[in-house]
Amino acid sequence: MSSTRGTAAPLALPTPPVRPDRPRGGRFGSLAGWAQRHRWAALLIWVAVLVTVTLGSQAAGSAYKNDFSLPGTDSQAATDLFTKHGSAQAGDSVDIVLKDRQGIDAPKATVEQMLAEVERLPGVAEVRSPYTDASAVSDDGTIGYATVTLDAKAEAIPKEDVTAIIDTAKSAETDGLQIEVGGEAVRGAEEKGSPIAELAGVVAALVILGLLFGSLVAASVPLLTALFAVGAALGLIVLASHVFTIADFTPPITMLVGLGVGVDYALLIFYRYRHELTDGADPAAAGRKALDAAGRTVFFAGCTVIIALLGLVALGLGSLQGVALALALTVLTTMAASLVLLPALLALFGKRIQRHVLKHAAKTESKGQAEGRRWRALASAVQRRPLLSLLVAVLALLALSAPALGLRLGFADAGNDPRATTSRQAYDLLAEGFGPGFNGPLVVVAQGDETAGRAVQLELAKTEGVAAASPAMPSEDGALSTVIVYPQTAPQDAGTTDLLHRLRDDVAPRVEQDTGAEILVGGVTAASQDFADTVSKRLPLFVAVVVGLSSLLLMLVFRSILIPVKAALLNLLSITAALGAMTLVFQHGLFGVQPGPVEAFLPVLIFAIVFGLSMDYEVFLVSRMHEEWERTKDHSLAVREGLASTGKVITAAGAIMIVVFGAFMLSADRMLQQFGLGLAVAILMDALVIRCLIVPALMHLMGKWAWWLPAPLARRLPKVALERPADS
Question: What CA–CA distances, in Å, run from 629 to 108, 208, 296, 624, 638?
Answer without folding.
Answer: 83, 32, 19, 9, 5
